[in-house]
Amino acid sequence: MKAILLEEFNKDLKVTNIQEPNLSDEGVIVKIKANGICRSDWHIWKGHWKGISTPLVMGHEFTGIVEAVGSNVKKFKKGDRVIIPFSLSCGHCEYCLDGSGNVCTERQSAGITFNGGYGEFAHVPLADFNLAYLPEEIDFVSGAAMGCRFATSFHGIVNQAKVGAGEWVVVSGCGGVGLSALQFSVAMGANVICVDIDDRKLNLAKDLGASFVINSKESNVVDQIKEITNGGADVTIDALGNSEIVMNSLNSLKKKGRHLQLGIAPDNVNFDFQVRTLVNFEHQIIGSRGMPPQKFPYMLNMVKSNRLKPKDLVTKTVSPDQVNDVLQGMGSFDNLGITVLEW
User: Fold this and answer.
1) Distance between CA 288 and CA 303 in Å, rounded?
2) pTM across the whole model
3) Mean pLDDT across the stretch 133-150?
4) How far apart (Å, rounded) are the C-alpha atoms in residues 53 and 111?
5) Sign of the C-alpha dihedral, residues 184, 185, 190, 192?
6) Which residues form the Enoyl reductase (ER) domain (predicted)?
7) SS3 content of the chain, % helix, strand, coil (to 5)
Protein backbone atom coordinates (compact mmCIF):
# COMPACT_ATOMS: atom_id res chain seq x y z
CA MET A 1 0.00 0.00 0.00
CA LYS A 2 1.03 3.61 -0.43
CA ALA A 3 2.04 5.43 2.78
CA ILE A 4 3.74 8.62 3.93
CA LEU A 5 6.61 7.37 6.06
CA LEU A 6 8.52 9.08 8.86
CA GLU A 7 12.00 7.55 8.66
CA GLU A 8 13.99 10.18 10.58
CA PHE A 9 12.84 12.94 12.91
CA ASN A 10 12.93 16.44 11.44
CA LYS A 11 13.47 15.09 7.92
CA ASP A 12 11.02 15.10 5.02
CA LEU A 13 8.45 12.34 5.07
CA LYS A 14 8.69 9.87 2.19
CA VAL A 15 5.76 8.76 0.01
CA THR A 16 6.50 5.08 -0.56
CA ASN A 17 5.03 1.59 -0.67
CA ILE A 18 4.94 -0.55 2.48
CA GLN A 19 3.28 -3.80 3.52
CA GLU A 20 -0.42 -3.64 4.36
CA PRO A 21 -1.26 -4.06 8.08
CA ASN A 22 -2.07 -7.48 9.54
CA LEU A 23 -5.58 -8.17 10.84
CA SER A 24 -6.01 -9.30 14.46
CA ASP A 25 -8.97 -11.34 15.72
CA GLU A 26 -10.36 -8.35 17.67
CA GLY A 27 -9.41 -5.69 15.14
CA VAL A 28 -10.48 -4.30 11.78
CA ILE A 29 -8.64 -2.99 8.74
CA VAL A 30 -9.87 0.43 7.63
CA LYS A 31 -9.49 1.82 4.12
CA ILE A 32 -8.67 5.41 4.89
CA LYS A 33 -10.58 8.20 3.19
CA ALA A 34 -9.33 11.27 5.06
CA ASN A 35 -6.90 12.14 7.86
CA GLY A 36 -6.51 15.40 9.74
CA ILE A 37 -2.97 16.81 9.93
CA CYS A 38 -2.52 17.74 13.59
CA ARG A 39 0.01 19.75 15.57
CA SER A 40 0.72 16.52 17.46
CA ASP A 41 2.02 15.17 14.14
CA TRP A 42 4.36 18.16 13.99
CA HIS A 43 5.63 17.44 17.52
CA ILE A 44 6.24 13.79 16.56
CA TRP A 45 7.96 14.75 13.31
CA LYS A 46 10.23 17.20 15.17
CA GLY A 47 11.17 14.53 17.75
CA HIS A 48 9.77 16.51 20.69
CA TRP A 49 8.21 13.53 22.44
CA LYS A 50 10.08 10.63 23.98
CA GLY A 51 9.35 6.97 23.32
CA ILE A 52 8.28 7.21 19.67
CA SER A 53 10.02 4.87 17.26
CA THR A 54 10.69 5.14 13.55
CA PRO A 55 9.91 4.17 10.85
CA LEU A 56 6.35 5.27 11.52
CA VAL A 57 3.22 6.05 9.52
CA MET A 58 1.78 9.00 11.43
CA GLY A 59 -1.86 10.13 11.48
CA HIS A 60 -4.22 9.70 14.42
CA GLU A 61 -7.48 11.38 13.34
CA PHE A 62 -8.91 9.56 10.37
CA THR A 63 -12.09 8.28 8.81
CA GLY A 64 -12.71 5.49 6.38
CA ILE A 65 -14.53 2.33 5.44
CA VAL A 66 -14.07 -1.03 7.12
CA GLU A 67 -12.21 -3.27 4.69
CA ALA A 68 -11.74 -6.45 6.77
CA VAL A 69 -13.06 -7.66 10.13
CA GLY A 70 -11.39 -9.91 12.71
CA SER A 71 -13.10 -13.15 13.70
CA ASN A 72 -14.05 -11.92 17.19
CA VAL A 73 -15.46 -8.52 16.17
CA LYS A 74 -19.22 -8.27 16.78
CA LYS A 75 -20.22 -4.63 16.18
CA PHE A 76 -18.70 -3.85 12.79
CA LYS A 77 -18.79 -5.34 9.31
CA LYS A 78 -17.10 -4.72 5.98
CA GLY A 79 -18.39 -1.53 4.37
CA ASP A 80 -19.20 0.33 7.60
CA ARG A 81 -18.28 4.04 7.66
CA VAL A 82 -16.12 4.71 10.74
CA ILE A 83 -14.23 7.37 12.65
CA ILE A 84 -11.18 6.42 14.67
CA PRO A 85 -10.82 8.14 18.08
CA PHE A 86 -7.38 9.47 18.98
CA SER A 87 -7.38 7.64 22.35
CA LEU A 88 -7.44 3.85 21.90
CA SER A 89 -7.82 1.64 24.95
CA CYS A 90 -7.31 -1.86 26.33
CA GLY A 91 -10.94 -2.31 27.37
CA HIS A 92 -10.24 -4.05 30.69
CA CYS A 93 -8.32 -1.72 33.06
CA GLU A 94 -10.11 0.20 35.84
CA TYR A 95 -10.29 3.37 33.72
CA CYS A 96 -11.74 1.62 30.67
CA LEU A 97 -14.29 -0.13 32.86
CA ASP A 98 -15.53 3.16 34.33
CA GLY A 99 -15.83 4.81 30.90
CA SER A 100 -12.54 6.72 30.96
CA GLY A 101 -10.66 4.81 28.30
CA ASN A 102 -8.93 8.01 27.17
CA VAL A 103 -6.64 7.64 30.23
CA CYS A 104 -6.30 3.84 29.88
CA THR A 105 -3.24 2.37 31.60
CA GLU A 106 -2.30 0.62 28.33
CA ARG A 107 -3.50 3.32 25.97
CA GLN A 108 -2.41 3.40 22.36
CA SER A 109 -2.80 5.88 19.54
CA ALA A 110 -2.73 5.21 15.83
CA GLY A 111 0.10 7.11 14.19
CA ILE A 112 2.00 7.29 17.48
CA THR A 113 2.34 3.81 18.98
CA PHE A 114 1.53 2.00 15.71
CA ASN A 115 1.01 2.93 12.05
CA GLY A 116 -1.87 5.30 11.42
CA GLY A 117 -3.75 7.36 8.88
CA TYR A 118 -0.92 8.60 6.65
CA GLY A 119 -1.39 5.37 4.72
CA GLU A 120 -4.06 3.84 2.51
CA PHE A 121 -5.00 1.25 5.16
CA ALA A 122 -4.70 1.05 8.95
CA HIS A 123 -5.40 -1.58 11.57
CA VAL A 124 -7.57 -0.60 14.55
CA PRO A 125 -7.15 -2.94 17.55
CA LEU A 126 -10.02 -4.01 19.81
CA ALA A 127 -12.50 -2.48 17.37
CA ASP A 128 -15.66 -3.19 19.36
CA PHE A 129 -14.33 -0.94 22.14
CA ASN A 130 -12.27 1.60 20.18
CA LEU A 131 -14.12 2.29 16.94
CA ALA A 132 -17.11 4.56 16.31
CA TYR A 133 -19.63 4.66 13.47
CA LEU A 134 -19.52 7.72 11.21
CA PRO A 135 -23.12 8.69 10.36
CA GLU A 136 -24.04 8.98 6.69
CA GLU A 137 -24.87 12.67 7.24
CA ILE A 138 -21.20 13.46 8.04
CA ASP A 139 -18.69 13.40 5.18
CA PHE A 140 -15.24 11.87 5.58
CA VAL A 141 -13.36 15.19 5.55
CA SER A 142 -15.55 16.63 8.31
CA GLY A 143 -15.04 13.42 10.27
CA ALA A 144 -11.27 13.67 9.89
CA ALA A 145 -11.41 17.07 11.58
CA MET A 146 -13.07 15.49 14.62
CA GLY A 147 -10.99 12.51 15.79
CA CYS A 148 -8.43 14.44 17.85
CA ARG A 149 -8.75 18.23 18.06
CA PHE A 150 -12.52 18.41 17.90
CA ALA A 151 -13.03 15.44 20.24
CA THR A 152 -10.38 16.70 22.67
CA SER A 153 -12.11 20.07 22.85
CA PHE A 154 -15.57 18.50 23.23
CA HIS A 155 -14.42 16.38 26.17
CA GLY A 156 -12.57 19.30 27.75
CA ILE A 157 -15.41 21.81 27.38
CA VAL A 158 -18.38 19.54 28.10
CA ASN A 159 -17.10 16.84 30.46
CA GLN A 160 -14.05 18.34 32.18
CA ALA A 161 -14.49 22.12 32.55
CA LYS A 162 -18.28 21.83 32.28
CA VAL A 163 -18.70 25.19 30.56
CA GLY A 164 -22.14 26.68 31.17
CA ALA A 165 -24.44 29.20 29.52
CA GLY A 166 -23.52 32.83 30.14
CA GLU A 167 -19.99 32.10 31.35
CA TRP A 168 -16.97 33.99 30.07
CA VAL A 169 -14.51 31.67 28.34
CA VAL A 170 -11.08 32.71 27.08
CA VAL A 171 -9.50 30.55 24.36
CA SER A 172 -5.80 31.20 23.77
CA GLY A 173 -4.35 29.82 20.55
CA CYS A 174 -6.66 29.80 17.53
CA GLY A 175 -5.45 26.71 15.74
CA GLY A 176 -7.52 23.57 15.27
CA VAL A 177 -7.90 22.88 19.00
CA GLY A 178 -8.68 26.48 19.87
CA LEU A 179 -11.24 26.98 17.11
CA SER A 180 -12.89 23.68 18.10
CA ALA A 181 -13.02 24.88 21.72
CA LEU A 182 -14.61 28.10 20.48
CA GLN A 183 -17.35 26.20 18.63
CA PHE A 184 -18.19 24.04 21.63
CA SER A 185 -18.17 26.95 24.06
CA VAL A 186 -20.53 28.93 21.84
CA ALA A 187 -22.76 25.86 21.48
CA MET A 188 -22.94 25.64 25.29
CA GLY A 189 -24.08 29.27 25.46
CA ALA A 190 -20.85 30.86 26.68
CA ASN A 191 -19.38 34.24 25.77
CA VAL A 192 -15.98 33.60 24.18
CA ILE A 193 -12.85 35.74 23.96
CA CYS A 194 -10.19 34.43 21.58
CA VAL A 195 -6.50 35.33 21.91
CA ASP A 196 -3.80 34.89 19.28
CA ILE A 197 -0.92 36.75 17.61
CA ASP A 198 -2.25 36.27 14.06
CA ASP A 199 -5.03 38.54 12.84
CA ARG A 200 -6.03 35.99 10.17
CA LYS A 201 -6.82 33.45 12.87
CA LEU A 202 -8.60 36.04 14.99
CA ASN A 203 -10.76 37.05 12.03
CA LEU A 204 -11.68 33.40 11.51
CA ALA A 205 -12.52 33.14 15.22
CA LYS A 206 -14.88 36.11 14.87
CA ASP A 207 -16.54 34.44 11.89
CA LEU A 208 -17.03 31.31 14.04
CA GLY A 209 -18.73 33.18 16.87
CA ALA A 210 -16.14 34.77 19.17
CA SER A 211 -17.62 37.73 21.07
CA PHE A 212 -14.22 39.47 21.35
CA VAL A 213 -10.73 38.86 19.99
CA ILE A 214 -7.38 40.03 21.37
CA ASN A 215 -4.05 40.21 19.54
CA SER A 216 -1.57 39.47 22.32
CA LYS A 217 1.26 41.19 20.41
CA GLU A 218 -0.61 44.47 20.57
CA SER A 219 -2.39 44.41 23.95
CA ASN A 220 -1.96 43.47 27.58
CA VAL A 221 -3.99 40.25 27.53
CA VAL A 222 -4.74 40.05 31.26
CA ASP A 223 -5.86 43.68 31.53
CA GLN A 224 -8.10 43.41 28.48
CA ILE A 225 -9.75 40.20 29.66
CA LYS A 226 -10.47 41.65 33.09
CA GLU A 227 -11.92 44.78 31.51
CA ILE A 228 -14.16 42.86 29.07
CA THR A 229 -15.38 40.40 31.72
CA ASN A 230 -15.62 42.96 34.52
CA GLY A 231 -13.19 41.15 36.79
CA GLY A 232 -12.04 37.91 35.21
CA ALA A 233 -13.00 34.87 33.17
CA ASP A 234 -14.93 31.87 34.44
CA VAL A 235 -12.87 29.52 32.26
CA THR A 236 -9.53 29.97 30.50
CA ILE A 237 -8.18 27.51 27.93
CA ASP A 238 -4.63 27.02 26.69
CA ALA A 239 -5.15 25.39 23.31
CA LEU A 240 -1.48 25.49 22.32
CA GLY A 241 0.78 24.36 25.18
CA ASN A 242 2.78 27.45 26.06
CA SER A 243 4.09 28.65 29.44
CA GLU A 244 3.27 32.32 28.78
CA ILE A 245 -0.28 31.42 27.79
CA VAL A 246 -0.71 29.38 30.97
CA MET A 247 0.41 32.25 33.18
CA ASN A 248 -1.78 34.78 31.36
CA SER A 249 -4.69 32.36 31.62
CA LEU A 250 -4.32 31.82 35.36
CA ASN A 251 -3.91 35.56 35.96
CA SER A 252 -7.08 36.25 33.94
CA LEU A 253 -9.36 34.04 36.05
CA LYS A 254 -11.94 35.34 38.48
CA LYS A 255 -12.10 33.78 41.91
CA LYS A 256 -13.23 30.13 41.71
CA GLY A 257 -12.39 30.12 37.99
CA ARG A 258 -11.23 27.05 36.04
CA HIS A 259 -8.22 26.73 33.76
CA LEU A 260 -8.49 23.98 31.12
CA GLN A 261 -5.24 22.70 29.62
CA LEU A 262 -5.83 21.28 26.14
CA GLY A 263 -2.54 22.10 24.40
CA ILE A 264 0.42 19.74 24.81
CA ALA A 265 3.91 21.19 25.14
CA PRO A 266 7.26 19.53 24.36
CA ASP A 267 8.63 17.33 27.16
CA ASN A 268 11.15 19.96 28.30
CA VAL A 269 8.54 22.72 28.87
CA ASN A 270 7.29 23.23 32.43
CA PHE A 271 4.72 25.68 33.78
CA ASP A 272 5.18 27.84 36.89
CA PHE A 273 2.27 29.21 38.89
CA GLN A 274 1.75 30.77 42.32
CA VAL A 275 0.34 28.15 44.69
CA ARG A 276 -0.82 30.83 47.15
CA THR A 277 -3.11 32.38 44.53
CA LEU A 278 -4.38 28.96 43.51
CA VAL A 279 -5.41 28.28 47.11
CA ASN A 280 -6.74 31.72 48.06
CA PHE A 281 -8.82 32.14 44.89
CA GLU A 282 -9.91 28.48 44.76
CA HIS A 283 -8.79 28.18 41.17
CA GLN A 284 -8.98 24.81 39.43
CA ILE A 285 -6.45 23.54 36.90
CA ILE A 286 -8.02 20.84 34.73
CA GLY A 287 -6.27 18.52 32.30
CA SER A 288 -8.03 16.87 29.37
CA ARG A 289 -6.79 14.20 26.97
CA GLY A 290 -8.73 13.03 23.93
CA MET A 291 -12.18 11.60 24.59
CA PRO A 292 -13.44 8.11 25.46
CA PRO A 293 -14.72 6.36 22.31
CA GLN A 294 -18.05 5.69 24.04
CA LYS A 295 -18.76 9.45 24.16
CA PHE A 296 -18.27 10.03 20.45
CA PRO A 297 -21.97 9.51 19.62
CA TYR A 298 -22.92 12.57 21.73
CA MET A 299 -20.57 14.77 19.72
CA LEU A 300 -21.61 13.21 16.42
CA ASN A 301 -25.28 13.81 17.21
CA MET A 302 -24.55 17.52 17.69
CA VAL A 303 -22.90 17.57 14.27
CA LYS A 304 -25.83 15.71 12.68
CA SER A 305 -28.24 18.29 14.14
CA ASN A 306 -26.05 21.11 12.75
CA ARG A 307 -25.30 22.55 16.19
CA LEU A 308 -21.61 21.92 15.49
CA LYS A 309 -19.92 22.42 12.13
CA PRO A 310 -16.45 20.83 11.95
CA LYS A 311 -16.34 21.44 8.19
CA ASP A 312 -16.15 25.19 8.94
CA LEU A 313 -12.75 24.59 10.55
CA VAL A 314 -11.33 22.82 7.48
CA THR A 315 -9.56 25.44 5.39
CA LYS A 316 -7.58 23.13 3.12
CA THR A 317 -7.41 19.56 1.80
CA VAL A 318 -4.13 18.15 0.47
CA SER A 319 -2.71 15.12 -1.33
CA PRO A 320 0.08 12.90 0.08
CA ASP A 321 2.87 14.80 -1.67
CA GLN A 322 1.79 18.06 0.03
CA VAL A 323 2.01 16.86 3.65
CA ASN A 324 5.64 17.96 4.13
CA ASP A 325 4.70 21.53 3.24
CA VAL A 326 1.88 21.49 5.81
CA LEU A 327 4.20 20.27 8.58
CA GLN A 328 6.80 22.88 7.67
CA GLY A 329 4.14 25.57 7.91
CA MET A 330 3.19 24.46 11.42
CA GLY A 331 6.65 25.38 12.65
CA SER A 332 6.01 29.03 11.87
CA PHE A 333 2.27 28.83 12.72
CA ASP A 334 1.40 29.71 9.12
CA ASN A 335 -1.46 27.24 8.79
CA LEU A 336 -5.03 28.42 9.25
CA GLY A 337 -7.72 26.18 10.71
CA ILE A 338 -7.52 22.44 10.03
CA THR A 339 -5.82 20.83 7.03
CA VAL A 340 -7.01 17.38 5.96
CA LEU A 341 -5.17 14.76 3.90
CA GLU A 342 -7.46 13.01 1.43
CA TRP A 343 -6.72 9.54 0.06
Assistant:
1) 21
2) 0.87
3) 93
4) 11
5) negative
6) 8-341
7) 35, 25, 40
